[in-house]
């Protein structure tokens, strides 16, 4: 559900928020984010969506990269991501470490 909200709010043609809203919230232009998302997915399979042990889709690549960028842009603590993105602290730390290693 979090992925669907994220896509509907920012990435659909008739999204709730504009390009300027995206830039203000995530501190990056949407087209740059999409290029970064594509490149990160090509380099590191961690950023591709997989099924969890129950057979449900895991976190989407969009969610993973957004969390990493928000942590860098705003210095958000990992436990604050639970309320917004439904991710545990350890998952956020894993995502952040994978993102940083991939970019480096």
What features would you describe in this structure?
The chain is mostly helical. It has one domain (2-103). Helices cover 63% and strands 0% of the residues. It has six helices and no strands. The chain has helices at residues 2-11, 19-26, 30-43, 61-74, 81-85, 89-103. Helix 4 crosses helix 6. The longest helix is centred in the C-terminal third of the chain and has 15 residues, at 89-103. The N and C termini lie far apart (31 Å). The mean pLDDT is 87.
Attribute tags:
104 residues; mainly alpha
Low-confidence stretches: none
Summed up, the helix count is: 6
Total domain units = 1
Structural class call reads mainly alpha
| Sheet having the most strands | none
Give the termini separation.
31 Å
Strand content: under 5%
Overall pLDDT: 87
- Note the overall shape: globular
Radius of gyration: 13 Å
Q: Approximately how much helix is present in the residues?
A: 55-70%
Tell me the number of strands.
Answer: 0
Following the backbone from N to C, one meets helices and strands in this order, namely HHHHHH
